[in-house]
Specification:
This protein is of the alpha/beta class and 299 residues long. It is 48% helix and 14% strand.
Length: 299
């Protein structure tokens, strides 16, 4: 499958504007980031499974290149990057935003559900990132922004498999940060909490059809809570997009950027839990090293 390229002529962005490549840009956080980048005069390569959905949302703009991209298709990811480079000559910011949630207990989900989730949230991110990095390495600049989640900080009943994909994104991002920083390329993993987008709607959230009564107090309760809070989340997606603009403009961006007071609280609570549990089990944990006396004698 090849990328659908519009008929606008090849153009070079000004040196003061950035060229963004954003996946999952037709709605939700991706669309908000694309809107903010265009509003500040940047160039945006906006991708979605259906390029027409991007044109419907944003209209035809000289600074916008809408492209069809299914991130699970590695060849298509390379074609999209090639089309972006042919049009604009460079990619300054990659936002890996495409993804979706899976609601249900770990046991309730089928292997096929889990595989599809990982194909998009993890392998899709890798396909696009690996397609973009040769150009960023050649220009010795760029910023890879991976959209994780509050669920990438701490997993939870009902969202365990989704959170596991975001844990993977966190680990990939840490490694990229170490590998790319010497080449002048930044990496940031953004950790939004609950923002008022379509994430909890059917288009962005799959729900495992299998329901086991034993999980009613845990994963089952989360299913009910998701319905209640949909479109009542505390986070403002417009402000999130502005925060990402500030992130991209920073000369020294962080490895992690938590967004939302709920994520900040989750981080604080997890640190307390880890410190308490580590202290409780420290003696046993430390007992597994070779005894120092034996090591000294062996030397």
């Amino acid at each position: 499958m090849t990328a659908a390229v519009s008929s606008l002529p090849t153009s070079s962005p000004s040196t003061s504007s950035r060229v963004w490549l954003i996946t999952g840009a037709s709605r939700g956080i991706g669309a908000r980031i694309a809107e903010a980048a265009l509003a500040q005069g940047d160039v945006v390569v906006a991708t979605a499974r259906d390029a027409a959905s991007i044109e419907k949302r944003f209209g035809v703009q000289k600074a916008l290149l809408p492209l069809a991209l299914d991130v699970t298709d590695e060849a298509q990811a390379r074609n999209v990057v090639g089309a972006a480079l042919d049009r604009f000559g460079r990619i300054d910011v990659l936002v890996n935003n495409a993804g979706y949630g899976l609601l249900g207990a770990v046991e309730e989900a089928t292997a096929d559900e889990v595989r599809r989730l990982y194909d998009t949230n993890v392998f899709g991110l890798l396909h696009v990132t690996r397609a973009v990095l040769p150009a960023m390495r050649a220009q010795r600049s760029g910023h890879v922004i991976n959209i994780s989640s509050l669920g990438g900080v701490q997993s939870a009943a009902g969202f365990g498999l989704y959170c596991s994909t975001k844990f993977a994104v966190e680990g990939i991002s840490e490694a990229l940060h170490a590998e790319l920083a010497p080449l002048g390329i930044h990496t940031t993993v953004v950790e939004p909490g609950y923002f008022r987008t379509e994430f909890l709607d059917g288009a962005s959230l799959a729900v495992s059809p299998r329901v086991l009564d034993d999980y009613a107090p845990t994963a089952g309760a989360v299913r009910e809570a998701a319905r209640r809070i949909n479109l009542n989340q505390p986070g403002d997606p417009v402000r999130l997009a502005q925060a990402v603009m500030q992130l991209a403009a920073s000369a020294t961006p962080p490895l992690r950027l938590p967004l939302g007071t709920d994520t900040l609280q989750t981080i604080a609570d997890k640190h307390v839990f880890v410190e308490k549990e580590t202290a409780q089990w420290r003696v046993l944990a430390a007992s597994t090293d070779f005894p120092k006396e034996a090591e000294q004698k062996a030397a």
